[in-house]
Amino acid sequence: MANQQPPTKKIKMFSSDSLVSAIPFEVWRDVIGRTLGYSDRLNLNVTCKEFDITFGDYKQKFLKKHAIHIPQDVRTIEKAMELVEKLQMDPTEKDPLRIVLDKGVHEIKGGPRRDRGRFELDCSHITFIGKGFAQTTILGGFFVENYQNVTFAELTISNPTGYGLWLRGSTVHVLKCVLEECGYTGMFVWVGTTVTATQCTFMENMGDGVHCWGAKLRLNDCTIHHNGVAGLNAEKDAVVDLHGTKTNIHSNYMFGIAATKNAKVNIHLPYYRTVGDTQKQDNGGSIANMNADGTFTHVVDEELIHY
Questions:
Q1: Fewer CB atoms inside 10 Å of the end CB: C or N, the chain?
Q2: How far apart are CA 263 and CA 281, in angstroms?
Q3: Distance, first Cα to last Cα, the chain
Q4: What is the pTM of this model?
Q5: Within a 10 A sphere around the Cβ of 279, how many other Cβ atoms?
Q6: Is it true that the peptide bond before 71 is cis, omega within 30 degrees of 0?
Q7: Structural domains of the chain, ranges and CATH numbers in brackets
Q8: Each residue of 154-188: pLDDT tens digit?
């Protein structure tokens, strides 16, 4: 036929072995190797002898390092956790894994639990650490269920479509973090969880700044303000302890502190009152100032409204 096109000519490409063989060993060692992240190295053809000689002990060095840097080693948090699985890492309490996030915004784009913008963590003994809450931001949230010794440090976490941290049945530490502008609550602490938050700020979230349901929570020198419902909401047998002279709860839309359904909020300060916020205590919930001798003074609602 007149319009029939000739068949496409197939070009035989060179193999990875032939390409690598043409590259001097020094180039692999001093130039190419320095530009490869961990995932790149893992995905290279293991039959490349020069690569194998240069980076044969790479995995062992990484396992000793116990740290993944974003974006230097991998681009995203999701890729970092995929790498943990590929390397079959097994962090322990004495030797935890660190996910080190550089300056900038790190968006959570995928993962096992993508609903409401949150990533479902599947690892114990892990620390996510940034360069400071003013410099490192995670756009998205985390779901942590039944894992221990999980730490978030030096970060801002903002999830416009859901919770910042949703924690259940776990032991979690939050250090020098800001949880802000979340579509729901900044930090939700669910049944069976023990959380310690130190020098953190929970602000401008659509729901509560912090919500604790049937769990244990300790807040050290934390600030909670300008949230859409309550600053601190404790329910269903929760026990919340407030420590530190820099503790400050103010300017929340409905309540500064709410304690309901037999929840207890214990204030371990000489005397503490919120500014401008009303308080809520009902259904067996209580807010109390703890005295130095171990006794407590039950807080009267009016005492916490103004200085």
A1: N
A2: 9
A3: 94
A4: 0.80
A5: 24
A6: yes
A7: 92-304 (2.160.20.10)
A8: 999 999 999 999 999 999 999 999 999 999 999 99
